[in-house]
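I am still getting used to backbone structure tokens and would like to learn alongside you. Please make up or recall a protein chain and show it to me in full. Would you write everything just below, so we can both look at the same thing?
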Amino acid sequence: MDAAMKSQGFVFWMLVGVLLSSASMIGCGSGAGGTGSGASSEMREEGRAVFGTGGVRTGDASGRDSGRGGGNSGGGSGGNSGGSDGWAVLLEFVRGAGHEARAQERRRAWAAELGRGDVTVRGRESGSAVVLGSYRAADDRAAQRDLAMVKNLEVNGQRPFAGAYLLPPPAPPHEMGGRPEWNLVSVRNMPAGRTALYSLHIGVFEGRNRQRLAEDEVARLRRLGEQAFYFHGADRSAVTIGLFGEDAYGSRGVSQDVRALQMKFPHMMRNGSERMMTPEGTPEPTILVQIPR
């Protein structure tokens, strides 16, 4: 495993989370009082290299079940509704010459260690990602359960996957929508996008008209002075607000700027008016997500 992946836990979530390709985003533990391990610049670079055009949401080591999604309950095949290229738990990223063959060796080793038949290798421009499972969404129950399992797994007294997170499928290039400049993917082309890493995920739209409705919501928020963006996945569209740099999330949780925005937009909304609820029956908090690169 690369030294970066052996280092301190990487707390990301993304993107871009809820949605992206069928998904919802993954939570960065950015809800009120959320904490987690800090993300070093080395690990952020690793995340950007792995994500490509996608984004992620960080997993919750406590194994909190979001109650949405449907994958399989674990064992040999993980979530089976995401196809062969759905969301997946990133175990390791292998770089350098011969990374394909080395990644296959690592795949066999981790498959044996985990006792799972759904450990696979996904190619990226800069290397090969060794991943577990394939899930319909980032908040799929099986995805969150498997992520919690690998993050807490101990091998010879070590936790090799403490920095594991969910890797999303890349967003289709034709899903830029009617206002491409408001698409979260376009942030990387903006001056502020050179340093921006995160945005606050505040809602998701589903259904046949989800793209138009998400873009209308972004337009409404922008008329109110908010820096709003949308992101279209395979069957959901997400709405986010704000751009934040590397100081937005650290070992003590989210920054004061993020908390202030969460006070203004405290609850995740579905289709603009319905509060999204946790399995415990409480409103789901808005979450910090990584901007896709």
In short: The chain has a mean pLDDT of 73. Residues 3-290 form one domain. The chain has one domain: 3-290.
